[in-house]
Amino acid sequence: MGLIYPDFKTLPEMFSQVFSHYKGRTDRFPLARKINGRYTPITYDSLHRDVESLSAFLRHKGIEAGDRVAILSENRPGWYLTDMAVLSIGAVDVPLYPSLPPNQIEYILRDSGSKAIIVSNMLQLGKIMSVWQNLPDLGFIIVMNRLEEKLEGVTELSAAKNIGSRLLSERPDFVSYQIIKPDDTATIIYTSGTTGLPKGVMLSHRNICENVKSCSNIIRLDESDRSLSFLPLSHAYERTGGYYLLFACGASIYLAESIETISLNITEASPTIIFTVPRLFDRMKATIMKQISKESQAKQKIFYWAQAKGKEYHEAARENSPSSLLTLQHALADKLVYSKIKRKFGGHLRYFVSGGAALPPQVGVFFQSLGITILEGYGLTETSPVTNVNRPDNVKFGTVGPVVDNVELRIARDGEILFRGPNIMKGYWNDQDATDEVISGGWFHTGDIGELDEDGCLKITDRKKHIIVTSGGKNIAPLPIENLLAESPYVNQVMVIGEKRPFLSALIVPDMEQLQQYAQKEELPALPPEKLMEHKEIRKLFESLLRTVSRQLATHEKVRKFLLIAQPFSIENGFLTPTLKLKRKAISTTFDKEIDELYHAMVYNTE
């Protein structure tokens, strides 16, 4: 069936059409969450009533079209409700990662001029209370959980809905729905800039709606589909793909309890599609291989035979030439091995969609050989976000597939990937200079380097800008973190790493003079620099530094491991440019082995 209503031009129009289509239906539902150990659905009618009530409360509190309202919450029904209510009155929502510390939240709320914020719980409320005095525009707070005590300017979500419901019963026309235009801003999503100060990406209703329509033509969904949601809704990828696309097609969204419970929740929800990031595949592959290693020799042989046949079959299928014998062997392998692995994913999974970071080709091939399809895609917050995705009938690992409908792609002379289309952002909030830097002649400059193959599939080959993208899909500017670390008298030079890795680490060149003074003060033995750096008390000193700096950073920005390097970075050894900037690629290539050992040790220790 695809989209319930294919002609929507704004998100509230799409919401309204879907709610009308399912009015009175209890056999279909948009959301399900865990209550008392069981997944319990939320009906379309119930969600619609709540959206209307919250919309009325927001209008009652003075929120007008174009006003910004922030959301600070984990994935939960209240997130979807808030988003729908804010957008339905023509206001603009500003999503915030729940892992952000108060100082970063303060910056975004002040920069966006948010008039209200809706938070999930007391922890998030505490963050806002600690910075509220610095936010003259912030008028009131709504908290989704129950309040432990009455606070001025803070309303429980249940109370807000009750007030809105009363207003509507007295005056059904109280929420005089704004005429929302396709080019009105729907959301401002803050992303890391190269300078470290986050920039607000303004996405219009047209940007998002056109992207949803483009995706719906590639990944065919209908009301029989269901997903498991665990990526943060504050990220454009989950929001467009894992929320708006699914809702527009009548699919059901099951909310995972947490990252730790994904394996359990998959078997309970039996999803047909899951939007995820490469990091999860690493974990799942490790789990599968660990289980196989515990099986008998005979079962291990069958597994590896089935895996080899799966790989052979898909290679032949690409050329349309699997032999009848290979087809028979593949069917047998499915019965003996693939079907059992698929049951661990609920038994109904059609696709994983992978985005947010690069998927290692060998990981894609591993899962494909076991009968599990991963569709890797690409995009940026600024492109709403999807620009490319592999097609279900033609998966090419190592590429992010061809462009989606309505999107044009061009490779500039220097290899930079450029896009043009209705999905390109309106610009950066309050930052015309930054907007002009990336949009020229209608073309958006991604900062990534790539090439097109003979089938029009895009291959990302390098990054033009230094933003680190972890394997969890987080975009992190290393410079501000490096500056914080460099404030220590014991740090001479530092480079933060973490591209395609599960977390950040730091390569640190210590200030040897300061370090030796510290060693004397602590009565450590006189040692040459290389030996001194290995001393456990010196390791403790740097571990303490990382902990101190981490308190000022979001969870995904914390530096978890470090490597001490005796040789300073210089122009002479090729680690600095003539203007004394770090030659990041040269440094990471030189210390590639030590970096691998650093991450391997961490993974090994945590298993």
From TrEMBL:
Pfam families: AMP-binding, AMP-binding_C_3. Keywords: ATP-binding, Ligase, Nucleotide-binding. Signal peptide: none annotated. CDD domains: VL_LC_FACS_like. One of its GO terms (molecular function) is ligase activity. It comes from the Bacteria. SUPFAM superfamilies: Acetyl-CoA synthetase-like. Residues 29-429 form the AMP-dependent synthetase/ligase domain. This is Long-chain fatty acid--CoA ligase. It catalyses: a long-chain fatty acid + ATP + CoA = a long-chain fatty acyl-CoA + AMP + diphosphate. It comes from Prosthecochloris ethylica.
